[in-house]
Amino acid sequence: MTRDQLQQILNRFSQQTILVVGDVMLDHFLWGKVSRISPEAPVPVVEVTRESYFPGGAANVARNLRALGAHVQVFGVLGDDSAGSELRALLDQQGVETTGLLVDPTRPTTVKTRIVAHHQQIVRFDKERTAPISPALAEELLARFTATLADADAVIFEDYAKGVMNQPLLDTMHRRARRRGTITTADPNSRHPLQFRRLTAITPNRLEAFAAAGLPFAEPAEDVLRDEPLLAAGRKLLNQWRTENLLITLGEHGMCLFRAGERPHHIPTVAQEVFDVSGAGDTVIATLTVALAAGARPVEAAEISNHAAGVVVGKVGTATCSTAELTASFQRNCR
Q1: Residue 84 lies in domain
Q2: How does pLDDT run across 3-38, given as a tens digit for each residue?
Q3: 20 neighbors 74 (Cβ within 8 angstroms)
Q4: Could you tell me whether strands 245-249 and 201-202 are parallel, antiparallel, or unpaired per DSSP bridges?
Q5: Is 267 helix (H, G, I), strand (E, B) or coil?
């Protein structure tokens, strides 16, 4: 891909409208420093110096899409609480359309709190309820999704196993989207084995890929294209999911793109430094999807998402990547 081709694709990002469906959450960070061990237990004492909030889960996918210039609407469920109000306000500030967010007074907004000291995450604790949403809420979510589908270039299904996504809802939404010729992509969850059949693209990480394929996990080989357990998982998932593009993310080993009838394509990582992998998968699915919607070929879209992942893991906290940072990454790594 030449620089001109890359720029043409990036320039079309702002013309795309993407719908994001799934488990939204609020990422809460407590930042501080450690100078001593507690006398009460062998744990570090963190002196908190500041705190911050970011959209998380499906909301972070939406935030990443907005950072890339796309128009975005998010669909999910909030609690009737201060965390839900905070999350909606953050998304509104960033230009994400939030009329697809429903309120369920019987459950809290999912909140992940991370304590970070000296650029290292010390601990995370979660506030959540993972029971399935009610049939009435699912029907309302489907109705609001369907009402906006005509304007969508792509739909992302983001499953964090927090109760929003279920098989009937996924199947109905996907069927209605594909009937219109809309691109559909998904980021699966190993703890909630939904069947993502006949989507445009699916982006599991290595652990999720082995779990979905029903194969025992195997440690990675240095040569990705000779990693037989990984290749077997990729082949099985292509057959099982019938997806057009299967992009398995591999951390420090980059990514591997599987397509029916073609050889697997390995994309080495371009990450310079890794400070925090929180939300990197959200960045990958967001960037891959908007690139496909903007007319990129699957290999091009995968390469662009690989660069975006390399940018965000070099930042601390739940982060995003801009088109300017993508351009700079390609200039730095593709000479």
Answers
A1: 3-333
A2: 889 999 999 999 999 999 999 999 999 999 998 999
A3: yes
A4: parallel
A5: strand
pLDDT tens-digit series, residues 298-322: 999 999 999 999 898 887 667 888 9
Q: Are strands 111-117 and 120-127 parallel, antiparallel or unpaired?
A: antiparallel
Provide the number of structural domains found in the chain. Answer: 1
Q: Which of 223, 235, 297, 313 is nearest to 266 (CA)?
A: 223
Residue 268 backbone phi and psi in degrees, to 5? -65, 150
Structure tokens at 15: 């013309």
Report whether 291 contacts 309 (CB < 8 A). no
Give helix then strand counts, H and E, for the chain: 10, 13
Residue type, 32: G
* Calpha distance 329→139 (Å, rounded): 43
Tokens representing 20 are 């994001």
State the residue for tokens 């909140």: 111
Q: Which residues of 88-98 are buried (b: 16+ CB within 10 A; e: fewer)?
A: bebbeebebbb
Active site residue 282: yes
Could you tell me if 185 and 157 are in contact, meaning their C-beta atoms sit under 8 angstroms apart? yes
Q: What is the CATH number of the domain that holds 213?
A: 3.40.1190.20
Q: Quickly tell me which residue has 């990958």 as its tokens.
A: 284
